[in-house]
């Protein structure tokens, strides 16, 4: 189906299908005519994209450190669960300027010489200046879903980090931080290869009776690959996320 197509169904049975184009032209959109269709679509949308870009803030201007401090530091101070879940400083490369979101210390700062990062984002400064100008409360649905950025990470996906960027108001961060706090119910236990451990993974609540694998004194949750030391409960993948466990 394409925009303008209409279909009539009875249950799972297709009774009729009509397109706004002749059937052979509609089918060509997905087969032999795909390249031509995409080229024509790009040409049609070029003025729309140009008009949207014209509304962006300029790439150059005052340093971004202070406005990012004003935005992020109050959110950090109100979100202990999320900041502890992120657990590391995060690098933002914004054209010629680099800003560090130091989640363990709840500060936004300049980088330290030779500093290395577990998580890094490279974003065009005009995009950041635009969302700051517009008081955008959700960078995930603006900057990140636009795919106009480069991301690097060491280790697994961190749900807390992207949640932070979705919750850039007092109300949003309070709700999200409270949700994570309430989600940390580890009262149910299972026995796995000589250890009593909490049933739900501290990362994203996978059932460790299904996804947990013990090798020596290391537990791996095979849903996302996170690991824990069963002698200490310490997470080997990211800071925080302690596991309740004991040897039987």
Automatic annotation (TrEMBL):
Ranges where the Rieske domain occurs: 197-248
InterPro entries noted in UniProt: Rieske_2Fe-2S (IPR017941), Rieske_2Fe-2S_sf (IPR036922), SCP2_Rv3818 (IPR057330)
Keyword Metal-binding listed: yes
Matching Gene3D superfamilies: Rieske [2Fe-2S] iron-sulphur domain
Coiled-coil annotated spans: none
Transmembrane segments: none
Keyword set includes Secreted: no
A GO molecular function held by the record: monooxygenase activity
Keywords recorded for this protein, A-Z: 2Fe-2S, Iron, Iron-sulfur, Metal-binding
Protein name in UniProt: Rieske domain protein
Native organism: Mycobacterium xenopi 4042
Taxon lineage: Bacteria, Bacillati, Actinomycetota, Actinomycetes, Mycobacteriales
